[in-house]
Amino acid sequence: MKFEPPKENINEAREILITVYEALKERGYNPINQMIGYILSGDPTYVTSYNNARSLVRKLERDELIEELLRSYLENENNEENNRK
């Protein structure tokens, strides 16, 4: 079975992750820890409501967020590996 999300969901997930990260950072939270808490538990209170971050992050399924995180990480690793060659 092959899973391919619609392209617009990829861009939306990326934008939401960036917005949520910035909102958490601006409010003085550790954004990585808070986002991990949300992804693992599904509890939206891990995400601040500042700048509408909580509502935004709830627009997507958690698996969509994980997919975007993994895609971004692997693309970055691949780019770094190519730069070392």
Automatic annotation (TrEMBL):
InterPro entries: IreB. It comes from the Bacteria. Belongs to the UPF0297 family. This is IreB family regulatory phosphoprotein. The lineage of its organism: Bacteria, Bacillati, Bacillota, Tissierellia, Tissierellales.
